[in-house]
């Protein structure tokens, strides 16, 4: 694949038949979904593998609660991509993204409550991306079944 820089002397992407793949909303959605799935799988499995004393070293939360969060994150990461990959119950992707967004709200609150606001930006951004996936997948699933979503009524 050859990329060119647009200038007045070159032909446009439309005239050459080339398009930017990131302008496709489906590609954007899958990119965000895959990155979130990898992030949550990694974070969740790490919370399950790390010894309890090391896991609670920098946190006021109990090891069992952090392990529960790890299980939720790992299952949520799988839930972001598995339904679409296996084409089974695709509406579960939106629910997984919503659950992960709720976990990220908790992460933002606990991080901010620890005293420093700057580290809370990372879970905030991840949470916003989870909400993006939840909304887009809900719209996609509704359109598959011929339903129109009315956000004012929900």
Q: How helix-rich are the residues, as a percent range?
A: 55-70%
Instruction: Output the helix-strand order.
Output: HHHHHH
Give the biggest beta sheet: none
The strand count comes to 0
What is the structural class? mainly alpha
Estimated share of beta-strand residues: under 5%
Mean pLDDT: 82
Q: What is the count of helical runs?
A: 6
| Low-confidence region ranges | none
Question: Which of globular, elongated, flat, extended, rod-shaped describes the shape?
Answer: elongated
Radius of gyration: 20 Å
CA distance, first residue to last residue? 44 Å
- How many distinct domains? 1
Task: Give a quick precis of the structure.
By secondary structure, the chain is mainly α.
How would you portray this structure in words?
The protein has six helices and no strands. It is mostly helical and 154 residues long. It has one domain. The longest helix is centred in the first third of the chain and has 25 residues, at 25-49.
């Amino acid at each position: 694949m050859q990329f060119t820089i647009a200038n007045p002397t070159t032909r446009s992407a439309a005239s050459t038949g080339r398009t930017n793949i990131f302008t496709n909303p489906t590609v954007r959605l899958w990119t965000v979904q895959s990155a979130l799935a990898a992030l949550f799988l990694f974070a969740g499995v790490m919370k399950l593998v790390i010894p309890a004393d090391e896991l609670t070293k920098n946190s006021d939360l109990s090891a069992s609660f952090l392990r529960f969060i790890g299980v939720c994150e790992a299952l949520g990461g799988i839930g972001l991509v598995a339904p679409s990959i296996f084409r089974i119950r695709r509406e579960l992707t939106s629910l997984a993204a919503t659950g992960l967004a709720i976990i990220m709200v908790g992460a933002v609150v606990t991080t901010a409550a620890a005293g420093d606001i700057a580290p809370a930006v990372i879970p905030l951004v991840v949470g916003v991306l989870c909400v993006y996936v939840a909304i887009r997948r809900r719209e996609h699933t509704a359109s598959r079944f011929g339903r129109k979503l009315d956000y004012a009524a929900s």
